[in-house]
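Protein modeling request. Please complete all fields; requests missing the sequence field cannot be processed.
Requester role: graduate student
Desired output: 3D structure, token encoding
Chains: 1
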Amino acid sequence: MATPHTLTQRPRPAAARPAIVRAARTLLARDGWTHCTADAIAAEAALPPGTVRDHFPDQEKLLLSVLLDSTAAVAAALAHVADSHLTEVTDLEADLIALGRAWLAPLDAFREHFAIVRHISAEVTRLPVEAVEKWQAAGPRQARRHLARRLRHVADQGLLDITDADQAAERFILLVPSGVVQRTFHGALPLTRRETDTLIADGVTDFIRLYAPPAPRPAP
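Delivered output (220 residues):
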């Protein structure tokens, strides 16, 4: 809690900037973009009024940088998930199910980020268009590109019939992990392991049905 002493003495710049960034991230996760004002950030960081504007004159750039840093961390985690699965496919269905489970792990590992996502999704029409575009490019599209490369690798082995790997990656995300993401509101509400496993397995079944290679023709 702020005290009269902390509110009357401006901290050194080196200490203030990270405090401001941490406070902005906390407020984005708790209250959303439109409520994350310079004064609110200063209060959250126990800094004197005006300190945020001293260090970050453009508030939108501050919020965007916080959002993109958070997004980049999750995208890196999902890239690792994609790159560490489907390297050696021994059972396509089981391996895709394992990938689907692993794709959901960031919901627990990055709870603050997904709290930000919930707010951003609700406020999207009031956000700067540039912020939404950069968020999508740095996060969801970046992760999807890594997944597309792994699916292309599987298709090259003849296990899937894929023409557009990026589209296939998008459909995998929609069919497999997205059911859990939507039911839990990005990890905010609990879902039983059985419900999660059923949603993932059903999604994988649909994905394989969609991209199964053509059955070989019988010899004449």
